[in-house]
Amino acid sequence: MTLNRPLERLHADAGLQPERTSLAWGRTMMALVTVSAIFLRWLPHHGLPILALFTVAVTAAATIYLTQRRRYSTSSCGILQEKVNAEIVAVLWTAFAGVVLGILGIAVVLAS
User: Fold this and answer.
1) Quick check: 71 and 25 in contact, CB under 8 A?
2) How far is CA 17 from CA 24, 46, 61, 84, 86, in A?
3) Which of 22, 14, 16 is nearest to 70 (CA)?
4) Distances from the Cα of 91 to the Cαs of 28, 30, 61, 62, 111, in angstroms?
């Protein structure tokens, strides 16, 4: 299997799981970018501690963006080989970022 072909051509079914998963990760990334912009709007009211929330959200969004192409290729190749493994690390990283955002958010609001 060569990966020099366009990613859309790695498997025959255009409505298959890699596309839907890629769209879901894209929505998650966009939600994190939107939330990070909202955090910047809160900066005058909550002060510099809000930058911790901004940093976590932007880092999580950037990580999703930078790993998206590899994740799609892995899923597409897995379909051809009839063996697709779950992206446990990516899911755990995103869950961890969400928990950290929640804890930091509570801490920032209570400190204000």
Assistant:
1) yes
2) 11, 42, 21, 10, 12
3) 22
4) 11, 16, 13, 15, 30
pLDDT of residue 92: 93
Q: 3-state DSSP: the chain helix, strand, coil percent, rounded to 5?
A: 80, 0, 20
Q: What is the pLDDT of residue 1?
A: 44
Amino acid at 81: Q
pLDDT given for residue 46 in this prediction: 87
Report CA-CA distances (Å) from 42 to 23, 30, 76. 29, 19, 41
Boundaries of every domain in the chain: 16-111
pTM of the model as a whole: 0.74
Q: Residue 64's closest CA among 111, 14, 27?
A: 27
